[in-house]
Amino acid sequence: MDPDADALERSAEAALRPGTLDEFVGQRVVRDQLDLVLKAASARGATADHVLLSGPPGLGKTTLAMIVAHEMGATLRVSSGPAIQHAGDLAAILSSLDEGDVLFLDEIHRLARPAEEMLYLAMEDFRVDVVVGKGAGATSIPLSLPPFTVVGATTRAGLLPAPLRDRFGFTAHLDFYEPHELRAILERSAGKLGLALDGDAAAEISGRSRGTPRIANRLLRRVRDWAQVHGSGRADLAAARQALTVYEVDERGLDRLDRAVLGALCTRFGGGPVGLSTLAVSVGEESETVETVAEPFLVREGLMSRSPRGRVATADAWVHLGLQPPADALA
Ligand code: ADP
């Protein structure tokens, strides 16, 4: 996506973000647990425990971080693993925190090792060692920090080193949403957009959103575009179907990347097993993107499975692509 389009998408997305835990749809268990963590901390007049959220992109990790700050009446500070190149970058952020601030660290699994180690200490002891000078004359000056809350988000919890994972008092994994939850999200979003959305159109979009609120909201905006340009302005079933066809979302919600991965798995590798990196190269994507974006959904849909020897297409995958499954395809 070009940078302008990307910025536009982000601001459209921000306008649809729920602002409180009550408005946050689905993920009931996580919501109830987080509610308790925050209420207990408020009752004690303390800052909340550090929170680690994991799960595929677009399921609400950033939204929950914002909600934590909002519910605690705290200021949210935002950064990410890739944005922190050196431990010094993290030291600068940490030493500017005020008491009670919520520091959201997206893609925390991508923090460089020295920054990661600095973060352990800061999370546990609210202390950071600032190194002054270089070489033999360098000295480390301990600086104490006011209590604050880290909300870490990751698409790959398994990659976090145990010492970092252990510093989080509350960890939660976000799962794909059920169609009825996505429908509720779509109805709320349509209300915010001032868009008339028919029930069957909402059902159609929610069934094709890969269990992901971000995708549901994005498709809703595309349906709105279609309805404005070609239809009556109302998001009805016809507008939903036409827009989804234009944007190459198939009837099970697979997008272009999902189909490319599945297609390569079946046609180039005979259904597998094939290693993740080989599969990723064959579709021209980073392994991490295939692993965190396409794969969780394909596995959940029963189209792909993981075996110790690599990724394998199920019989259903062949059928979905309109291909004849080999006799030994996984049922
Ligand atoms: P992540 O950080 O996990 O990639 P985000 O928190 O940015 O995902 O969520 C993407 C978009 O999806 C948000 O803008 C928000 O509008 C919507 N969204 C996510 N989760 C929910 C939810 N539970 N209820 C309503 N909207 C949600």
Keywords:
single chain; 331 residues; alpha/beta; two-stranded antiparallel sheet
Describe the structure in your own words.
With about 325 residues, the protein is of the alpha/beta class. It is built from 14 helices and 9 strands. Strand 8 (about 305) and strand 9 (about 310-315) form a beta hairpin. Helix 8 runs parallel beside helix 10. The longest helix has 17 residues, at about 30-45. It is globular and about 65 Å long. The relative contact order is 0.10. The structure holds adenosine-5'-diphosphate. Adenosine-5'-diphosphate (ADP) binds near residues 18 and 58.
What's the gist of this structure?
Residues 47-178 form the AAA+ ATPase domain. By secondary structure, the protein is of the alpha/beta class.
**Helicity, as a percent range:** 40-55%
Give the amount of beta strand, in percent. 5-15%
Strand neighbour order, sheet with most strands: 2-3-6-1-7
Describe the largest sheet.
5 strands, parallel
| Global geometry | globular
Secondary-structure element order, as H and E?
A: HHEHEHEHEEEHEHHHHHHHEEH
Low-confidence stretches: none
From the structure provided, what is the oligomeric state, counting identical versus distinct chains? single chain
Report the strand count: 9
The rounded distance between the terminal residues' Cα atoms is: 37 Å
Structural class: alpha/beta
Number of H- or I-type helical stretches: 14
Q: What do the pLDDT scores average to?
A: 92
Rg (C-alpha, Å): 22 Å
Which cofactor or ligand species appear? adenosine-5'-diphosphate
Enzyme class: hydrolase
Binding site for DNA: 306, 311
Family: Belongs to the RuvB family.
Catalytic activity: ATP + H2O = ADP + phosphate + H(+)
